[in-house]
Amino acid sequence: MTILGFTKQETRAVGVMLVGILTVTAINLVGAIRKSRDAQRKGDVRQITRILDEFQTSQGIIPASQDGLIIACNPDFDELGNPIYKPCRWGEDEISGNKLPGDPHSTNGASYLYLASPKNYQVFASLESAKEDEYDEKIVARNLPCGIKICNFGLTSGVPLDKSIQEYENEIDEK
Prior knowledge:
Elements: E1 2-3, E2 6-7, H1 8-59, E3 64-66, E4 69-77, E5 83-87, E6 94-95, E7 98-99, E8 113-116, E9 121-125, H2 137-141, E10 145-146, E11 149-150, E12 153-156, H3 165-174
Antiparallel strand pairs: 1-2, 3-4, 4-5, 6-7, 8-9, 9-12, 10-11
């Protein structure tokens, strides 16, 4: 018996090869998409640090943090005309005309994390792949929440990422 001129055995062999090719393609595609999201996260964190540096240059302060958010959006003004900033929403709000990026999986509960003191800041994300060069086990050990994930990548104004800002500043003050 033949199917389109192929024997049953030949048809089966072609089917097995096609399934194999499709499986390998699907696995590679999933990996490429994950790698793309991680590249976006790294770029987003770099963009956030640029926005923070620009804010510090123009306003003379590092924005405060609250619940992992940057306090630098939609200001009200007190009776003296001083700005009173509100928490910025990742992926929605702007700081000084620059839109803050949001994690590519924000709809699934992933988020960036911002921690700050008047002198320093840290910005964190959770990369999906532990094989990324920037994946940092020391950050994982801090058990910081990047939404529903644990942070494992970050950039900073100069504070080591394996320490809290307060720890670092206390060490500096002791010297």
